[in-house]
Design goal:
Number of strands: 14
Structural class: alpha/beta
CATH superfamily of the largest domain: Response regulator
CATH topology of the largest domain: Rossmann fold
Strand order of the largest sheet: 7-6-8-9-10-13-14
Family: Belongs to the leucine-binding protein family.
Oligomer: single chain
Strand content: 15-25%
Shape: globular
Largest sheet: 7 strands, mixed
Keywords: Signal
Number of helices: 13
CATH class of the largest domain: Alpha Beta
Protein name: Leucine-binding protein domain-containing protein
Helix content: 40-55%
Number of domains: 2
InterPro entries: Leu-bd (IPR028081), Peripla_BP_I (IPR028082)
Length: 415
């Protein structure tokens, strides 16, 4: 009986010790528990930008994977991204959004461009969730108190930076510009309206000889391009999509005018357009312009960061301008979350907190690994408005290279 009592006491002490150890482990686990927040990712897997979407979405996810591992872990925060196919369509974005919001309760949205901004800019102030875009901004959103944030200034700002640079390069005479555009998207209309206003305000820099309107996916633009050339166009702007670049280039080739350069933007840049044409050499002498790092093979900080994502975080993407847009919007997002968590702790982060961080903090280029220049938002616009500069890429002797770096953007009036 005495031996049984002693055995029982020993077992009780052992059990009590196990409970204490488990409780201690539970407290330690709670102390290191991660708070998870969702980000909604709007994508286009079946619409006009499906051909470049893999690089954009993969690079967005790569940034989140990197941040979770190297920053968020020590802060007690994990970010998750879920993507939805909007087909780059305003009505589809508007239709999807209530379900996305109910499912995820996101603290931020990764967007693509005009359809997202047009569909959501009136809703987000009530939803209190910021939308971030790697694209340029838009004139119709050039107002204060916005919940939409573009990593770059407007496309007309970027075009103005290119034309001021190219005019000097060509000797100083006013340029004659032909514009290929479309009325299928508010974003496309906004771009050519802004460039037309800049041309009107700056006749010493350029004249827009005509703006041609095309369908969403044009196949033959020979007649339209020939009309621009007859009016004296010495450069053709194609800022809508890759299909338009291909059709314009084919038209120039069929007319024997391959020496006429095109200027494109980040979403339909030289690499993606060259791939669509089947040979990068077919973009010889043309240009791309935007307020981000140019994804050339030069050993830049942005390139080194991408290689880290590719090798350490298994990001399956190409180093392209669509990838750069993904990097730009996601880096601004995670750095904003970082500012919030450092200020108030990991619990209770809201979309309003993320927006406030975007508006009140400077984002030096080092924080985005050179993907963006120094960024500072103000309440007057949803994009940077001061100290603007652009980078310009080209194809020279079959090589993708930087043609102009930190070219200043002249003043652009609202349109």
């Amino acid at each position: 009986m005495i031996q049984q009592t002693m055995d029982f006491s020993a077992r009780a002490r052992q059990t009590l010790g196990s409970v204490i150890v488990m409780a201690a482990l539970g407290c330690a686990s709670a102390a290191h528990a991660q708070v998870t927040y969702n980000i909604a990712g709007i994508a286009d897997f079946t619409g006009p930008f499906a051909d470049i979407m893999k690089d954009t979405t993969a690079c967005r996810r790569g940034v989140v994977d990197w941040w979770n591992d190297e920053v968020g872990k020590s802060l007690g925060v994990t970010l998750k991204v879920k993507e939805y196919d909007s087909r780059y369509d305003v009505a589809q974005v508007a239709s999807l959004w209530p379900g996305i919001k109910a499912e995820l309760n996101p603290i931020a949205i990764f967007g693509l461009g005009g359809p997202d901004s047009n569909a959501l800019q009136q809703r987000l102030p009530n939803d209190k969730i910021p939308l971030l875009l790697g694209t340029s901004g838009y004139g119709f959103a050039w107002k204060s108190d916005s919940w939409v944030f573009n990593a770059r200034a407007t496309y007309p700002h970027e075009a103005a930076g290119f034309y001021a640079w190219y005019q000097k390069k060509m000797g100083g005479a006013p340029l004659k510009v032909g514009v290929i555009s479309s009325e299928v998207s508010p974003a496309y209309v906004d771009i050519h309206k802004g460039v037309e206003r800049f041309a009107k305000d700056n006749p010493q820099i350029l004249e827009v000889v005509e703006t041609i309107y095309t369908e969403a996916q044009p196949t033959d633009l020979t007649q339209q391009v020939n009309r621009l050339l007859r009016k004296g166009a010495t450069v053709i702007q194609v800022f809508n999509n890759t299909a338009s670049v291909v059709a314009t280039r084919r038209a120039l080739q069929s007319l024997g005018k391959s020496n006429i350069p095109m200027v494109v933007s980040a979403h339909n840049g030289l690499l993606s357009s060259g791939k669509a044409l089947g040979d990068l050499n077919q973009m010889e002498g043309s240009y791309e312009v935007y307020g981000m790092a140019i994804p050339t093979e030069d050993p830049t900080t942005a390139r080194a960061f991408f290689e880290k994502l590719r090798t350490q975080y298994k990001t399956q993407a190409n180093f392209t301008s669509p990838c750069m847009m993904g990097l730009a919007m996601s880096l601004l997002t995670v750095r904003s979350v970082e500012h919030v968590v450092k200020a108030k702790g990991p619990a209770g982060v809201t979309g309003a907190d993320v927006r406030a961080a975007l508006q009140t903090n400077a984002f030096p280029s080092e924080q985005t690994f050179g993907v963006l220049p120094n960024i500072k938002f103000s309440n007057e616009a949803p994009f940077p408005t001061s100290g603007l500069a652009v980078n310009i890429g080209t194809i020279e002797k079959g090589k993708y290279k930087l043609a102009g770096e930190n070219a200043p953007v002249p003043n652009v009036n609202k349109w």
